[in-house]
Specification:
two-stranded antiparallel ribbon
Length: 135
């Protein structure tokens, strides 16, 4: 599956396209996209909240559910090329920054219904006062 890079407009495929797709899901709130009102997640609503244990747990739940919800028309998860296996908080500090490592299985042909895993990959999310950034 290929697409365009949101910053450069160049062709993007493989793992970088998966990361971009996941970040689009995480940074889009429910109801923000016309004709796709269930595309997105609850993550944007949590950004800016006080960094408490309850917020962190809610953040984890929003991350997992946003990728595991199945699309009506295909029956596939929103991002079928990545399956979360573990979420680990890497940094929580007094500045209100939360860094989370999401580990999962990368399945490059998952969008075609072939869920053969290629390998394990990680995405690091950083939530700070400026928003959500993924690497």
């Amino acid at each position: 599956m290929a697409g365009l890079d949101r910053q450069t407009g160049r062709l993007l495929d493989g793992w970088p396209h998966v990361v971009q797709s996941i970040m689009l899901i995480f940074t889009t709130g429910f109801g923000e996209r016309m004709l796709r009102r269930w595309c997105g997640s609850a993550v944007p609503q949590l950004l800016g909240n006080s960094l408490t244990e309850a917020t962190v747990v809610s953040f984890f739940a929003a991350i997992v559910t946003s990728l595991e919800i199945k699309e009506r028309d295909t029956g596939l998860p929103r991002e079928p090329r990545f399956r979360i296996t573990k979420i680990t908080p890497r940094k929580v500090d007094r500045t209100g920054e939360l860094r989370i490592e999401i580990s999962g299985v990368y399945m490059p042909r998952g969008h075609l219904g072939d869920f053969t895993p290629e390998d394990t990959r990680n995405i690091t999310l950083t939530q700070s006062s400026t928003g959500l950034v993924g690497v």
